[in-house]
Amino acid sequence: MASVDHRVKVTMIEHYTETLFRFRCERPPHLKFRAGQFIMIGLEIDGKPVMRAYSITSPEWDEELEFYSIKIQDGPLTSKLQHIQVGDEVLLSGRAVGNLLPFSLREGERLWLLSTGTGVAPFGSILRDELTYQKFGKVFLTHTCRKINDLQYSQQLAEMVYNDPLCDDYAQKQFHYYNSVTRDPGHPRQGRITDLIRSGKLFDDLGVEPGFDPDRDRVMLCGSMEFNLEVKDILEEAGLRQTSGRNIGEYVLEKAFVG
Ligand code: A2P
Prior knowledge:
Blueprint: E1 6-15, E2 20-26, E3 38-45, E4 48-55, E5 64-70, H1 78-81, E6 89-92, E7 108-116, H2 121-126, H3 130-135, E8 136-145, H4 152-162, H5 168-174, E9 175-181, H6 193-199, H7 201-206, E10 217-223, H8 225-237, E11 251-255
Parallel strand pairs: 7-8, 7-10, 8-9, 10-11
Antiparallel strand pairs: 1-2, 1-6, 2-5, 3-4, 3-6
Bound molecules: adenosine-2'-5'-diphosphate.
């Protein structure tokens, strides 16, 4: 079971839909993390800590921590977490971990951050880290959800990245945001990102060279298990290798957390 090392206060909550919200909380003074990592967060429920892994969406330099969460009506944690208020206490484990790090990839001309659903969360941190832009020429964030409303967080994030005083100069030249939906006919970009990659539409829409090339492209992916496996197949077929231990490859992945 994850240890409870900190109790911190919630400082801000924003609800997007009946199933999605973000919140911010105090950051313990000595808690360090790298953009892309996750930490265990939780609540005390019936006298016991209920903890789940959450990617940190806030940048490394932020004085607070931010998280993006799903709401599941019978989820052990999120059924309660969705009702937190400013001033409430949340529990944190002491150490952030995970290998979804720009650090785990070789330099490259293009960095692709591919996400579905709440899998976009770790990219919130990575996109506000200037090292990302120093290491990679162009940075593309893709986010695919069922409904247009589910894209609100990534749309807001893209705005924040373009206007962030610490990385806006880089972002305005290097960062591109792309989204699509799969179950909402009102949106101009329809379809799973896997299909948009295979058909070449993703690259056409962005006006860039099609396909993934191990000499040019680096990829970080975060979504459901099925999504990760399907993208992995596409990348392996194109000759990209997954970073494993000390063997630095061209892509890394993490499962999006639910609960
Ligand atoms: P779809 O609506 O066709 O299932 P979820 O809400 O289930 O987590 O899904 C988030 C988004 O990820 C949805 O748009 C969903 O499309 C898409 N998705 C689910 N599985 C895959 C997969 N194996 N490859 C690509 N996209 C997927």
